[in-house]
Design brief:
Order of helices and strands: HEEHHHEHHEEHHEEEEEEEEEE
Structural class: alpha+beta
Largest sheet: 5 strands, antiparallel
Number of helices: 8
Helix content: 25-40%
Length: 328
Amino acid sequence: MGKADFLSPKAISNRIKSKGLQKLRWYCQMCQKQCRDENGFKCHCMSESHQRQLLLASENPIKFMDFFSQEFKNDFLELLRRRFGTKRVHNNIVYNEYISNREHIHMNSTQWETLTDFTKWLGKEGYCKVDETPKGWYLQYIDRDPETIRRQEELEKKKKQDLDDEERSAKFIEEQVRRGREGKDEVKFGETDSHLQKEELGCKEKKKSVRTDNWLQPDIVVKVITNQLGEKYYKKKGVVKRVQDKYAAVVKMIDSGDKLKLDQSHLETVIPALGKQVLVLNGAHRETLAILDSIDEKNFSARLILDSGPLKGKTIDGIPYEDFSKLA
């Protein structure tokens, strides 16, 4: 019988079968050859090329198994990293996508007998986080790229700083509510007995009461505390670009770069890390640069070291959180 025509149904069917996945038991990993049926696989096993590959493998079988295991592991992890990132995913989902490639390394040529064994090995070696559930094994890729680790550390640091600011604000509000209930008047931080004595004696160097109800200043970092603008800006930080009518400011958001016009009642000050420069916003040292020396969380205040003006180098205690802010 002559060879089937190129466009005949049989020829087309044969070409379709040759492109698709075939049964694993008819695949020779040593020769990387897929046979269509049992008869073809038997013919291949008796072929001269297959016998030569067997002789080569018999000289060092561990070397060949290690090679296939390494290739399988690398390809599997590359697919997991590229396709799923660091998301938690069922191991069968990843494996089914991996074997959809006709040229993949077959697991029966590696050191692992089952997918479960391979999944456990990935967890033991620290390539993935793995956990077993009633639905099977799940894995999560661990990205050890230095750049990725650096970005994650920056995000964690930013989250921690935001959390610290929120905790300080919450404690401050609680303290203000408590004082209001007790009927106490607001205490001006930084007042000392010696200062009161000087005021009583009419000393020339007495500090004037320069507290005002507006505190916005250009180039300070502030945080949006209103959710009327949506979650995009809520609890996000920005820099005051200019002050308008004392009580409003044009703020450029740090994350998005958007410019917003906000009232000071919708903003709060930002406390930087110790040793960073701040601007005093109210009180006797208003508009004076200072260095944040320490924080008194119990009294919601800080100790500052003046960094400009005639009193540069002087330490002032008990400055409330709302009387100073981080500089951009």
